[in-house]
Design goal:
Number of helices: 13
CATH topology of the largest domain: Rossmann fold
CATH class of the largest domain: Alpha Beta
Radius of gyration: 20 Å
CATH architecture of the largest domain: 3-Layer(aba) Sandwich
Largest sheet: 7 strands, parallel
Distance between the termini: 54 Å
Shape: globular
Length: 381
């Protein structure tokens, strides 16, 4: 198959690297440096410099390809996905844009294509898991704890951003939507701090973030759902200090005749401060809990635990692996015809198909991304 990968950032490179082992892959990016990094990692992948904001050029650009992957910054993700759909290409998307992807469903059906959105680690894998179990049991509670962190803690941040800093900062400023007792409830980001011990890495700090996205609507019948981000203890206080100091403000200020947004300025500073060194060790940790009742009215609790570390051989970070390989698995489902419905589908609607979920778990296991699954069932009384 011929596949076009739009974006050659950290995750885009992992996607192109993985797909290029089996398919003819061309990666597009505005940065020659990003493409050079990809070429060193995956010489079997073709790189092409292109302004991916030129959406009107997509039909011509994508004409030679059978399938497409979009892994662009969130601010341009929706328009890019719309342009891909208008080019009549089925696509797996991990741009995580703020707009509602359901707005493109009618267009996708009209164009006769299949779109899987948000197919990363969280959102992504967490959605696949919930979709799979929501078919077999009556789910009453879902919780996702997730974070990507450097192995070595270096102050003041003790953090490295796997994505654009401005996208990370948005997680700290946007209200966190949760499903609490059957109602969508907004809580402040960074709220409800909790220290949690994790085997193999010690104590981490959990706090509320707005990560449920499509689950709030596709799984609105589940009364309690939440997602919480994990960082090293003390991270909340650091971020609140920056926020309280006005560093995340979007309103521009005048400095020596220049109009400057504090948020944009902060993001520019943090790009280097939060950037991982090429050989820096890091890990992704996730714990997903699904609780409910079986058709036999037994109480059931299933826990998925992940501790994944960067690959020193390929140079791929853990976040790139866990996010990118979930995306490539999703695209393989489309290419192999395991999922062929037309329209736009978040991962939970794909994971509800057993063959798709089983394929995903096997695909990740082959690539060394291993989820430990623990299950307890309590007979009804």
């Amino acid at each position: 198959m011929k596949i076009g990968v739009l974006g050659a950032g950290m995750v885009g490179r992992a996607i192109a690297y993985d797909l290029g082992k089996k398919h003819e892959v061309t990666a597009f990016d505005a940065s020659q440096q990003a493409l050079n990094t990809l070429a060193a990692m995956a010489p079997h992948v073709t790189g092409c410099v292109f302004d991916l904001g030129a959406f009107h050029s997509y039909p011509t650009l994508l004409a030679p390809f059978d399938f497409v992957v979009t892994c662009l910054p969130g601010f341009m993700g929706y328009k890019a996905l719309e342009a891909v759909i208008q080019s009549r290409k089925s696509v797996a998307d991990i741009s995580f844009f703020p707009e509602d992807s359901a707005g493109l469903d009618e267009l996708a059906r009209e164009m006769g294509v299949t779109v899987i959105t948000d197919c990363g680690v969280a959102p992504g894998m967490s959605n696949f898991i919930l979709g799979y179990h929501d078919v077999a049991m009556k789910v009453s509670r879902f919780e996702c704890l997730v974070g990507g962190l450097p192995t070595t803690r270096i102050k003041p941040y003790e953090y490295k951003a796997p994505f654009s800093p401005i996208d990370v900062i948005e997680e700290y400023t946007r209200p966190a939507r949760m499903m609490i007792n059957g109602k969508i409830t907004e809580l402040p980001a960074l709220s409800d701090p909790e220290l949690i011990d994790f085997e193999g890495m010690g104590t981490l700090e959990a706090f509320n973030t707005d990560g449920l996205r499509s689950l709030l609507f596709t799984k609105g019948h589940i009364p309690n759902m939440k997602e919480r981000t994990l960082r090293y203890p003390g991270h909340i206080d650091l971020i609140k200090s920056l926020q309280g100091g006005g560093f995340f403000d979007t309103r521009k200020i005048n400095w020596n005749g220049l109009e400057i947004s504090p948020l944009e300025f902060t993001s520019k500073i943090l790009i280097d401060k939060w950037k991982s060194a090429p050989d820096e060790s890091e890990f992704t940790v996730m714990k997903i809990t699904v609780e409910g009742t079986t058709p036999a009215l037994e109480k059931k609790k299933v826990t998925y635990s992940l501790l994944d570390r960067n690959d020193p051989i390929t140079g791929l970070s853990s976040m790139a692996r866990t996010t990118g390989f979930t995306c490539t698995a999703s695209l393989e489902m489309l290419m192999q015809g395991l999922f062929d419905k037309k329209g736009v589908f978040p991962p939970e609607l794909v994971g509800s198909h057993n063959p798709c979920f089983e394929f995903l778990m096997d695909y990740l296991k082959v690539r060394g991304v291993n989820y430990r699954v623990d299950e307890t069932i309590t007979p009804s009384t």
